[in-house]
Design brief:
Shape: globular
Helix content: 25-40%
Number of helices: 5
Number of strands: 7
Largest sheet: 7 strands, mixed
Oligomer: single chain
Strand order of the largest sheet: 1-2-3-4-5-7-6
Distance between the termini: 17 Å
CATH topology: Aminopeptidase
CATH class: Alpha Beta
Length: about 170
């Protein structure tokens, strides 16, 4: 297993992990219409842009296949001034979850924030997503709940935060 910074050439594999993870994680949470309209091609183009401008890290298995990724940076909404950073995403293919990979993918994002003297961080998680337990286990506290809409369905996102990322047990 190797964790490394993503290159633009990884966008296709990152897109595949995202789409496949959404299908396994958000089935029966996010409307099927939305999930069925997610394409590898459209996400690949988006990931090319993201990888060019934001820190993205990938996890490769021993065969060199990308099986997970993470990305993060500055808090995006401005609604939470006590939190300077944000974990934008961690996605891991279902068959590789619950093996410690989430912590491994979180570590370089935390390092990126520390280098910028950012020591607090948020993450937004759909309320029905089991990933909430991962963040709570790492000491995140519930900061807020917000309502979002995906394909006409109103969903709740829980905003979790760490006041000091240096205390995250990684």
């Amino acid at each position: 297993m190797e964790i490394r910074k993503a290159a633009v050439t990884d966008a296709k594999d990152v897109a595949k992990v995202q789409v496949d993870s959404w299908h396994s994680t958000y089935k029966n949470i996010v409307p099927d219409e939305y999930l069925n309209n997610m394409s590898y091609e459209s996400r690949e183009e988006k990931w090319k842009e993201i990888i060019s401008s934001q820190p993205v890290y990938v996890a490769e298995n021993d065969d060199g296949k990308i099986i997970g990724f993470s990305n993060g940076g500055a808090e995006r909404t401005g609604k939470y001034p006590a939190f300077g950073g944000e974990l934008y995403a961690i996605y891991i293919l279902k068959e590789h979850q619950r093996k410690g990979l989430g912590k491994q993918l979180l570590a370089p994002i935390l390092q990126e924030l520390r280098v910028k003297s950012v020591y607090s961080m948020l993450v937004l998680v759909l309320e029905d997503n089991d990933a909430s337990f991962f963040y709570e286990h790492l000491g995140a506290e519930k900061v807020d709940t917000v309502e979002i809409e995906i394909a006409g369905k109103k969903l709740k996102e829980v905003v979790y935060g760490w006041k000091d990322i240096r205390e995250i047990p990684i």
